[in-house]
Amino acid sequence: MFAAYAARIDRDQPLNGLELGERPAPAARPGWTTVQVKAASLNHHDLWSLRGVGLSEGRLPMILGCDAAGVDEDGNEVVLHSVIGQSGHGVGPREQRSILTEKYQGTFAEQVAVPTWNVLPKPKELSFAEAACLPTAWLTAYRMLFTNAGVRPGDSVLVQGAGGGVATAAIVLGSAAGLRVYAVSRDEAKRGRAVELGAVEAVEPGARLPHKVDAVIETVGAATWSHSVKSLRPGGTLVISGATSGDRPSHAELTRIFFLELKVVGSTMGSKDELEDLLSFCATTGVRPVIDQVLPLDRARDGFTRLAAGDQFGKIVLSTE
């Protein structure tokens, strides 16, 4: 079957390790389901995998891709939860959790196999491309906002890095849930898009907000850390799920954190139950993932190049149809 896969690890030039070509189809195994992939979406996790983060050379070649929607062996339209091992279903009961492509072949292929427990029904209201955007970036944003930030309608939230997958999801989900969302981007066009998607205001990096916020959604890391901490009200919460600009800020702002009793919460992906809730939320409210572009699988390199350059706004989707 045709696939996009990591053939080599290159920490400095990750796209050098990306190959497109034929790979073996998944073998049948008890407790697992093989899904015909219709659409899969890119995440920064895929770029990090090509750098060797979470993926060792001993596991190469590895088909990339965490997210997918497709059709199962019984003809049902499905969405995949990409966290393997946290429940023991389909794998050893003591196996530590991992994300697809860390230990098991991923979704950038015509077929993918996952534990049957990880297969969820796709709502008929969502297209395959839309559903394929949800299991990683959108699920991460959902958990950050509604589980770990603990915000409720009327609260205010700052979202760093408008344009990225998680940040875009947080803007859309937050505004749909009645939050006052402020967004940050260094790109004027992306700031404009953020407002179109529901942000009450979008500002340049480091800019002072009209007021302190209840929570910050942080995925950028070092470049925006100080601004994030300074934007919080006393007792506010900073939720971090990534550090695309690096994980070592020049100013940790420790004094501000303890003096104002701020909370810093780490957040990774989300549970199967949260993905079910997110799918239902999108189906019933009309909220839809923001898609930057849909490319055929054989143009995966174009998608990776766009993602690596940071030129996208929303999700890049690969289609097998």
Structural account:
This protein is α/β, with parallel strands linked by helices. The chain has helices at residues 44-50, 128-132, 134-148, 165-176, 188-196, 225-230, 254-259, 272-285, 300-309, and strands spanning 2-6, 18-22, 32-41, 62-63, 69-71, 77-80, 83-84, 98-99, 111-115, 119-121, 156-159, 180-184, 201-203, 213-218, 232-240, 263-266, 291-296, 315-319. The strands form four sheets. Strands 3, 5, 6, 9, 10, 17 and 18 form a seven-stranded mixed β-sheet that branches. The chain has a six-stranded parallel β-sheet with strand order 13-12-11-14-15-16. It has a three-stranded antiparallel β-sheet with strand order 2-1-4, with no helix packed on it. A hairpin with a 5-residue loop joins β5 and β6. α3 packs across α4 (165-176). It is globular, with a radius of gyration of 19 Å. The mean pLDDT is 94.
Short description:
The protein is of the alpha/beta class and 321 residues long. Helices cover 26% and strands 26% of the residues. It is built from 9 helices and 18 strands.
* Sheet having the most strands: 7 strands, mixed
Number of strands: 18
Q: What structural class do the secondary elements suggest?
A: alpha/beta
Terminal-residue CA separation: 14 Å
Say what oligomer this is. Answer: single chain
The rough form would be described as: globular
DSSP summary: helix tally: 9
Q: Beta-strand percentage?
A: 25-35%
Stretches where pLDDT is under 50 for at least 5 consecutive residues are none
